[in-house]
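Chapter summary example: a protein plus PMV.
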Amino acid sequence: MNNARAIAPGKVILIGEHFVVGGQPAIAAAVEIEAQVTAELSSSKGIKVNSREYGEAFFALEDGKNGPLYPVYIAAREVLSIAGGSRGLNLTVESNIPRAAGMGSSAAVAVATAAATAKLLELELSLEKISEIAYRSETVVHGKPSGVDNTVSTYGGLIFYKKGAGFQRISCDVSPIRLVLADSGIERSTGAMVAKVLTLKESYPHILEHVYHAAGELAHSAKNALEEGDFFKVGQLMNINHGLLHAVGVSNAKLDSLVHAAREAGALGAKLTGAGGGGFVVALCWKEDAERVADALKNLAKQVLVTGISRQGVRLVESSSPLR
Ligand code: PMV
């Protein structure tokens, strides 16, 4: 085989980011915004990664050098070591998922890298294994990932996730709703935001324990509401979740202004999504209201995206498949 190509979706966390790192459940959804990785064999003794956004980097087979493309190398190297060989690889990354913005771009790229490299090497890896490889790559991006990003990017759909306990699929007809995503334009590091919340938790354990518990209750209630198709309730719970994220210090004036503008324009609920401090907010909307909410956010946000929840997780594709 000359080359193999895989696509994996980005994600949004609807409920429970940060609290999921502390063991509470979270709810995440795969979105119709994706990353694609093409893997080819090469005669070099190493892994070359080429990305539209980050340019090119070459890694020797046992390379420790860091940088934005290093996690991609880590995912491919894990697959190479399972295959038991030391082949040279060229990897080409094309992603429509905004980076460093809370939409799981690094996890999606790692998942697609693992799947494409495995196919190229004719290795049959289970989805569980692909997700695990992407998780290890994520630990390079930020030290303590909960695992929610690689899980939802691997399996797709809507998931209820608890660190260490795996995930459950949430069964819900998502056709009446859309997610409107608005970028604050502020880049931030997930690792730094996670560390900030953990420090606050250590400083005020008796107070934060209640906030974490409330977040867990929110996730359980939101799961039930999704299963009942009660999107009004899901929206309200997302609003409460934004309040909890504000309480642990990861919102800011820009994110709050986007959240309030979305609600005023008719969103069912809106909150920051992902690590916060910048990045995106997510607004849950009826399909027919989504464009109106998006229009209301356009003057405030760097970029506004409207997407559905995608059932599809990682998959191998023909070279002609379009990237969403
Ligand atoms: O902003 P993102 O897409 O990197 O998501 C981070 C989500 C956190 O809950 C803050 C961290 C994690 O590992 O779950």
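Key point: Residues 17-18, 20-21, 102-104, 145-146, 148-149, 190, 194, 274-275, 279 surround PMV (CB under 6 Å).
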